[in-house]
Design brief:
The protein is an all-alpha fold. Helices cover 67% and strands 3% of the residues.
Length: 239
C-alpha cells in the first residue's frame, strides 16, 4: 500500500461525505496540508478522481468537485454489477488458469489479513481498497471480452462506479468493517464459483456484490440527512 492510495481513499471519502461543495476548487497545497502529505500524492489522487468522475478540470487545469446526483451514482453501480457479473460468468465458463487461481487466492489471503484488524486503521482500509481493485481487475482482464472491458472502463468514469470507490466510507468504522467482511466473503464465494466453473452462480454473485455499494450510498444519504446537510450536488429524494 502506498501513500498515494491512502490519500486517494481520504479524498474520495471527503467528497462523498460532503466536505466540499459542488464546483469548489481543490487546491493541492491546502489538501496536502490537511492530509499531512506532500503535493505529489495529492496531485496523483486528483488525476485518479478525475478518471472516476468525482472531480473535473477547468480551462486552467484546476480541479473542481463535480456535481452529480444520487441517481447517477446508483445507476452506475447497478450497471457495473451486471457487467462484472457477465465477466465472472465468462471466466467460469472459460476455466481458471493456474496463474489466475494463484493471483485471486493471494488477493483473498491479503483481504483476510487486513480485515483481521479491529478497528480498521486508515492504512489497512486503503490497502484493502487496493487489493479490491486488483481482485476485480483480474477477473475483468481474464474474461477475454474486449467490448465488455471497454464498457466497464467507460462506466468507471461515472461517480463512484469503480470497484474501490464503492467501498464503505470511513466514519462509522465498526459498521464499515462489518460490510467489508460481508463483501470479502462474497469474494470468497465468487472465487469458489469461478474455479468450479459455475457460470450462472458466478454471474449472480457478481451482480449481488454491488449491493454493498448501494447500501453504502443509502447510509451516506442517511448520514447527510441526519446532519441536515446535503451531499455534494446530490438530492436526498432520489428519482
Amino acid at each position: 500500500m502506498s501513500l498515494q492510495e491512502t490519500v486517494l481513499m481520504q479524498l474520495r471519502d471527503l467528497i462523498l461525505s460532503g466536505e466540499f461543495a459542488p464546483g469548489q476548487r481543490l487546491a493541492e497545497q491546502q489538501l496536502a496540508e490537511r492530509l499531512g502529505a506532500s503535493r505529489t500524492p495529492v496531485r496523483a489522487a486528483l488525476v485518479t478522481l478525475e478518471q472516476e468522475g468525482l472531480v473535473e478540470a477547468n480551462d486552467t487545469g484546476k480541479y473542481l468537485v463535480r456535481q452529480f446526483t444520487a441517481r447517477e451514482v446508483t445507476d452506475a453501480i447497478a450497471v457495473r454489477g451486471h457487467l462484472e457479473g457477465m465477466a465472472a460468468r465468462l471466466v467460469a465458463e472459460h476455466g481458471v488458469s493456474r496463474q489466475l487461481h494463484g493471483d485471486l487466492q493471494a488477493c483473498l489471503d491479503e483481504g483476510d489479513r487486513l480485515l483481521a484488524d479491529s478497528p480498521l486503521t486508515i492504512e489497512s482500509y486503503a490497502a484493502y481498497a487496493a487489493m479490491n481493485d486488483r481482485f476485480h481487475a483480474l477477473i475483468l482482464d481474464a474474461c477475454g471480452n474486449r467490448a465488455l472491458q471497454r464498457a466497464v472502463a467507460l462506466n468507471d468514469k461515472l461517480p463512484f462506479a469503480p470497484a474501490s470507490a464503492m467501498l464503505p466510507m470511513q466514519g462509522t468504522v465498526a459498521l464499515d468493517r462489518d460490510w467489508m467482511l460481508y463483501a470479502h466473503r462474497q469474494h470468497h464465494m465468487l472465487f469458489d464459483a469461478l474455479r468450479r466453473g459455475e457460470g450462472a452462480r458466478a454471474q449472480a454473485l457478481g451482480v449481488e456484490h454491488t449491493e454493498v455499494a448501494q447500501m453504502n450510498m443509502r447510509l451516506a444519504l442517511e448520514r447527510r440527512a441526519e446532519s441536515e446537510r446535503f451531499m455534494p450536488g446530490m438530492r436526498l429524494v432520489v428519482g
